[in-house]
Amino acid sequence: MKKNYITFTEIKKYLKVKGFTLTIKKKNYFKNDNLNVLLRTFISSIIIIFTFYVLPVFVDFKDKRMSNFKEFKNNSKNILKSTLENKNLGKLSKVDDDLLEKYIFEDVLEINDLPTDYVRLSAATIEQLFKDTNYNLEDVRQTKLVKPISLSLLPKEIKKIENTKKRKKLFIKIILPLVIKENNNIKLDRKKFFSIINKNNNTMSEKKWLKQKFKQYGVRKNDLLTLKIRMDEIPVSLAIAQAAKETGWGTSRFAQEGNALFGQWTWSEEGIKPAEAGNNTTHKVMRFKVLQASVKAYHRNLNTHSSYKEFRRARAQSRDEGKILLDSMVLSEHLDKYAETGKEYVKILQQIIKQNQLTDFDDAKILPASIELESLI
């Protein structure tokens, strides 16, 4: 039977006779466009797998490592936004209630541990120093600027100055820079405090600083609102008035022997026993090596002791109302527990403030002894 088709071999022979060569081209799946499509598909698959499975694990590991070695998360900006601005402090429960007393005077005791190489200047020498530096209270009342003169000890001759007005002026000029200096320290601390709590993330050094302030102000459970209420200034006029009252304008035995400007009590052996104290009396008056330590202890006492909680609440209320200057006449009303005479003690303080026009010094600034303090003027 005759076949009706031509095979490929026959066609190949025929074309060869005619001078042509026929070959079969094999198709390559691994070049050009086909290869590119395969590669893109493979790479896309790897990216998808990494995104959904590997990347979250890597990020979680990185976050944990960073939190352990570099910084910690600070949620106070959101959590405390409303409480730190709360206007009804009296309604807040468990605020400024607890006190951890162990560390509150630790930095004061460190000052007392410093070498005792202080020189007690005579009243005449101090007066000449003030004259040479043009430091007088009349200029301070006008310019609101105080010379950065910090004396460590009161002159013994101050109690021999018969002119009461002259003695008061000398005492005020000695105490004024010391009180402003301590307030400046607190201002700088408050500035740093608000800078820290307004950050989303804090460094370990900032966390360490906060921990130190919690200890200094006896704050339990790292309560930021309590720290905010306690870590604040004392009106200059009020501090001077209390120092004047407690020391008889610098003439008392406690002031002369122990640099005790505010008559703070202690139950340690280091204090000075009052002469009128009975045999059953165990308390003494705190003794300090320098006047600045006494001022610091006074600030810490008003800022932490439970007896002055209402004083601190009134001060915080004033702050929340946007008042720059703290009213010593108003705040003094809450210091009736400072002395056994109660309200009578408050009246005496207010009388001292008025008679000596001490409120003139409430907005006084000490001339900066460092660049850091320039921001406070």
Structure description:
By secondary structure, the chain is mainly alpha-helical. The chain folds into two domains: 1-69, no CATH class; 81-374, Lysozyme, CATH 1.10.530.10. The chain is 52% helix and 4% strand. The strands form three sheets. Strands 1-3 form a two-stranded antiparallel sheet. Strands 2-6 form a two-stranded parallel ribbon. It has a two-stranded antiparallel ribbon with strand order 4-5. The chain is elongated and about 145 Å long. The protein starts with 7 loop residues before the first helix and ends with a helix. The model is unreliable at 61-79 and 87-91 (pLDDT under 50).
CATH architecture verdict of the largest domain: Orthogonal Bundle
Rg to the nearest angstrom? 39 Å
Would you report the number of β strands? 6
Q: What is the top-level CATH class of the largest domain? A: Mainly Alpha
Major sheet: 2 strands, antiparallel
- Provide the number of structural domains: 2
Shape call: elongated
Low-confidence stretches: 61-79, 87-91
| Class from helix and strand fractions | mainly alpha
Helix content range: 40-55%
